[in-house]
Amino acid sequence: MLNGRSSKPWRKTGPVVLLALLAIFAGARAQAIREDGSYSCTLCHSKIKAQFLDDIHFKRGITCDRCHGGDPGAFEMEGAKAPSTRYRGKLSKAEGVRLCASCHSDEEMMRQYGLSTDQYQQFAVSEHGRMLLGEGNADVAACVDCHGVHLILPPSDPSSQVFRKNLPYTCAKCHSDEAYMAPYGTPTNQLDDYLQSVHGTELIEKNNRAVPECARCHGVHGASAPGTTEVYNVCGQCHPFIREQFMKSPHFEAEKEGLIEGCVACHGSHRIVRADSELFVKSCQECHARDSQAFRAGTEMKDLIDGAWRRYAEGRTELDRAMNDGLIIVDEELMLEEAHTLLINLRTVQHTIDVRVVEGEVAKAKSIVNGVITTL
């Protein structure tokens, strides 16, 4: 008590102030919703409202009536959904695609956001688009299946369904469902394979966003499986130097004739593991008899490459020994690094499937290593 009065008058006035603040906040929020034209919609659709307030479209001023029609200023259902308001309600999947395209194909509208406007054209020629728009199959994926409905987030948002790390799981909602995919005869082990692949491990476990996920290989809105003669170009987007060497190989000729699927023939598709020299034996025998000239060539390249790496390891051992002995080995260190670079480059050159080319690169690397060992 102070002069006969409580020293904590807020105990009496606090609740009143709090209620007043809440009323002001609620009034401001309601006023904002009235101003953006969606208030009457949210009287009934409160759950959707909770999602839509975080949607990228709402944040850009797009409100319910832009997609669904109706009169958001009318507070009676008869008026809000009157025929004169062009109320559309729930759209079919095909209608939804065309509705999205009505804005996203508008170059003038999209220019300010830096977005491309060819999504609809790409979707129309995709596997999904042809089945939906051409055959009327509403079971296939369309805009809302991948991006969401009332909570659409930018692809850069980690919570977005199409954020790079989330995309494999978004595709898997359909493509890992055996019953759902049964009518199409499509495998459902892609996600499991991808998560065990070098690409999946790098993306999901190491957060390396430079590696491909589903859309990088299959396309985004124009998603389709790469054709037999397209695989090397798809892989070549990330591996251009390997593609260049592959185009010099007999395998390239076989791919052009549709006999093999290029890179996939040796490395697989979704479960691509980090390759080593054992792949020469494992993959070559899939197509070539063990007593064939082609198989022998693969074995010879494997032996050449393994031998070069062993010689490099010997050079490294000698260099480390000299360093421990206190010798100055700057030049030798640079020479051995040059040999290592040549061996790394062999991983690209070997895609020529040319023993003579591989033999030449191996000879260069071993010559440098031999020089280092002799010097030490």
UniProtKB/TrEMBL annotation:
One of its GO terms (molecular function) is oxidoreductase activity. Residues 52-147 form the Cytochrome c7-like domain. Keywords: Signal. InterPro entries: Cyt_c7-like (IPR029467), Multihaem_cyt_sf (IPR036280), Multiheme_Cytochr_ET (IPR051829). Pfam families: Cytochrome_C7. It comes from the Bacteria. This is Cytochrome c7-like domain-containing protein.
